[in-house]
Amino acid sequence: MLHIALATIAAAGALCVAASGAAAAAPAKHTVTIADMRYEPAVLTVKKGDSVTFVNKDIFPHTATAAGQFDSRTIEPQRKWTFRAMRAGEFPYICTLHPNMKGTLKVE
Amino acid sequence: MKATRILFAVLVAASGAAFAQAPNDAQIAHIVVTANQVDIDAGKVAETHGQSAEVKAFGKQMVTDHTAVNKQATALVTKLKVKPEDNPTSQSLKSGGDANVKHLKTLKGAAFDKAYVDQEVTYHQQVLDAIDKTLIPNAKNAELKALIEKVRPAIDGHLQHAKQLQAKLGK
Q1: Which CATH number fits domain B2-13+24-170: 2.30.33.40, 2.60.40.420, 1.20.1260.10, 3.30.460.10?
Q2: In this complex, do A97 and B61 lie within 8 Å of one another by their Cβ atoms?
Q3: With contacts defined as CB-CB under 8 Å, which chain B residues touch A61?
Q4: Residue A56 to residues A26, A76, A103, B116, B163: CA-CA distances in angstroms?
Q5: Is the pTM of this model over 0.90?
Q6: Looking at the predicted complex, does its ipTM rise above 0.90?
């Protein structure tokens, strides 16, 4: 019985190592939720090559627009938009439909 | 200017004075729908009569956003089986809105843009006050209150947006 338990723990350990190794190599996926006229999180830091998905959970259409960098165009309610952050830098963005909505994407 | 003053008076009334007693949920639901409709009506005029692309786009956005709110409000009252009840505040909102639209239609070009945007600043500020002072404090049903609370950031956002446009037009 003890042997089986030990073997299980060892196997689980091996799996964890494998999983974390894979995560470091693959680009991460991030989500920014749009609700109640806000981006959540308002400031998001990602690594170059990661993907960022903006999910519009509001009842209004929104955009995520960093002039000259990225532009989701209109994301209707209950829709989403994904892009890959390929350039490093700090990109403030707004909703062009509601310009008081502000967020920042930091790409390292 | 006259229309703005009428609307201002109406909204001051909406923020409390028109009610001898606090509005009930059926009246609050009616005020919500009417307040949205008034801004939809003005937005439609801006889409066709606005001079600058930004003012037209703002008007279009008001139509989109306030229509979305009214869709939610209508779905909620249907679910709650509440029949929106006409009341003096709704009636004043409607007549003030109609007067404003009539006034706007007499204007053209930059004069239209200025009058529309000035009125949008005033309107959203007063709706925000009505939400905070009358509608949220008096709403009894939790879902109705939640809906109004959910709409508040949009009204605030529209106000900030309208103020940005106002500052630009003033230059």
Answers
A1: 1.20.1260.10
A2: yes
A3: 64
A4: 26, 7, 14, 29, 25
A5: no
A6: no
